[in-house]
Amino acid sequence: MESPVKIAILDLYDGEPNQGMRCIKEIIGKFGNQVDTQVFDVRGKEEIPGTKHDIYICSGGPGNPMDGDGHWDKRFYGLIQDLWNWNTYENLPKKHVFFICHSFQMACHLFGVGKITERRSESFGIFPIHKTPEGKTEHLFTKLANPFYGADFRHYQVVSPQVERLESLDAHILALEKIRPHVNLERAIMAVRFSNEFIGVQFHPEANAEGMLVHFSDENRKTTIINKHGKEKYDQIIRDLKDPNRIELTHDTILPDFITNAINQLKEETILVH
């Protein structure tokens, strides 16, 4: 019997109640005994895995991605650099890493591919995400329309792509945020393929419509959202969550396919090693 693939989930929510961790665990749970999963509380308990895992899923989280306490953030960056170095120096099997929202912003900062800035206003809802030419050939996006839809909740963004740095890494911007012809602002970067094994997205591909409908139907939460964003925004989110071609398709595609592809590659590379 083959040994299960070791997956590390890096929880960057710092104890804040969220739907992200539940969704990530549910997606990974569908792989059954193919995988062995551990969760690490990166910010709350400064739990940082070593390099012995095969797949690393890094979550979203609250706050400014540029603010750390000098301990957990330093160790997090150190881990990501160690995993990158492992892959760079032709070790097998490779390490596979997926970054979501907050951790994506941190990865973009670490690799120097863009500038982290605070948005003029919070992005809150289900929005179209537009593929770049490179995104149109990205295998994790091929099942999705252009644009496709993603759950997007953030105060910060990655802008000002550093072209020379992207080229030196052989990294590619895969997607940009919604087109806003009436707004004279740069469109944020929504996805980057850092390498064959490293990829990150600004939105929440793990978000599932059913769970979010329950989350947003809570009366206290509904009232808070309407007071802050207006009833029209709330009603639009509910309509989008009920549309099977929006975030449910994204949920069923991106992260599951990333894990599937990683497992298949790990199996092939393990055979080569042995």
Describe this structure in words.
With 274 residues, the chain is α/β, with parallel strands linked by helices. It has a single domain (5-208, 249-273), classed as 3-Layer(aba) Sandwich (Rossmann fold), CATH 3.40.50. The protein is 38% helix and 24% strand. The protein has eight helices and nine strands. It has helices spanning 20-29, 72-88, 102-111, 163-169, 209-217, 219-229, 231-242, 247-273; strands spanning 5-11, 35-41, 55-58, 96-100, 115-131, 148-159, 172-176, 189-193, 198-201. Helix 6 packs across helix 7 (231-242).
Measured on Cα atoms, how large is the radius of gyration? 18 Å
Shape designation: globular
The figure for the number of domains is 1
SSE run = EHEEHEHEEHEEEHHHH
In order across it, which strands form the biggest sheet? 2-1-3-4-9-8-7-5-6
Terminal Cα span:
15 Å
Overall CATH class: Alpha Beta
Give the count of helical stretches. Answer: 8
| CATH level 3 topology | Rossmann fold
List low-confidence stretches. Answer: none
Tell me the CATH superfamily.
Class I glutamine amidotransferase (GATase) domain
Q: How many β-strand stretches?
A: 9
Q: What share of residues are in beta strands?
A: 15-25%
Instruction: Specify the structural class.
Output: alpha/beta
How much helix is in the residues? 25-40%
Main β-sheet, in a few words? 9 strands, mixed
Q: Mean of residue pLDDT?
A: 94
